[in-house]
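Example 4.3 (complexes with small molecules)
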Amino acid sequence: MVRSGEIEQHRRDEFREKGFVVVRGFFDADELAALRRLLLQRFDVLRRADQRKLKRYTREDNAWLSDELIRRVLLSEKVGFTAAGLLGCNAVRLYHTASLFKEPGDGEVPWHQDQFVSPIDSPAVGCWLALTDVRREMGSVVFAQGSHKLGLLPEFESAERAEEMLVASGCSIRAPELNAGDAIFHSSMGWHMSSANSTSLVREAVGMFFFPDGARVLPSLTARQRTEWRLFFPGTLPGEFASSVLNPLVYEAGDS
Ligand SMILES: O=C(O)CCC(=O)C(=O)O
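Answer. The structure with 2-oxoglutaric acid bound is encoded below.
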């Protein structure tokens, strides 16, 4: 069994410095084709049910619960191992997965830190996997490089204000373009957003979020943290280990 310390040092350094790291070709064409077919079928059902005109994307949480192949791919050792290496821990649990399909005309996701709504007492890491090539104008995810070092900040009244603050704090704005199979791992402390999809193509992606095993539910929760807690940590109590049925151990380093 691999140990978390074996993840390439340069990736850990880059993640520590920038708050995100792009892993090219993280999933190969075969892995991706099967996953994409299944997630697209589910998206097709969801988009027909969702008649909203103004939205940011069509999202399905925890699709892994309904399909064994989706589970095997999204909760694979490779993903958990990389997440553990970047978090610098020996074992990670699943926070949740989210299929994220941004249709033509879907709007911007404003600047935010995922940690702001997290009900647990540890930073997490997200893996955002491109199911197709993703260009900036399709609504790729945009990162404020280095912003994970700013700590947890209050939300801003507008996207413009947030971006002004991030740039004034010395963060450069980066929008990596991805090919199908590339993944971006990002810290829950880092500020990110995604722009509107101004193309005629659907932006297809899936996110997987992990936290260190041993993290606990915060003793007191804001209204938004409470919403996430109910959704993704059912049956746990404030102050207890965050290890509900929805938070399986995805990777644990072995002894050798
Ligand atoms: O997929 C998007 O457009 C936004 C994703 C995001 O904010 C996240 O992964 O935390």
